[in-house]
Amino acid sequence: MAALFTLDSLREEIENEFAPVTIPLRDGSEVVLRNLLRLDKKDRDKVQAHLKSMQIDAEDEDADLEPVLASMREVIKLAAETGGVKLLREIGDDELLLQRVFQRWMEATSPGEASNSPA
User: Fold this and answer.
1) Count of CB atoms within 10 A of residue 66's CB?
2) Which of 7, 18, 40, 95 could form a disulfide with 35 if both were Cys (CB 3.0 to 4.6 A apart)?
3) CB-based contacts of 28: which residues, under 8 Å, 6+ apart?
4) InterPro entries annotated for this entry (predicted)?
């Protein structure tokens, strides 16, 4: 028997699987960080360029982390529907918090393994 589905049911499934990361701010507003695939091509290309530039040798103790942190900030601004600058202002100089927000977005935006894939 063939599987039956509707485009609406697929849209709902996609929305659940690739939901954006929503971060409440102190003033009661929220910043929504969209999934990478929800960005337009121009922004997606910029994000991918930043992600490539962030790769550093983990064993290099003298590696300059400033460019990596700057790229994290740019990715957050690009992923945010609105309020990316406001979110970064609230994060301030807390680089660990910046890294954690970025990490959560990366986890949410990474496609999971297909459920029908062979084990």
Assistant:
1) 9
2) 18
3) none
4) Gp24/Gp25 (IPR020132)
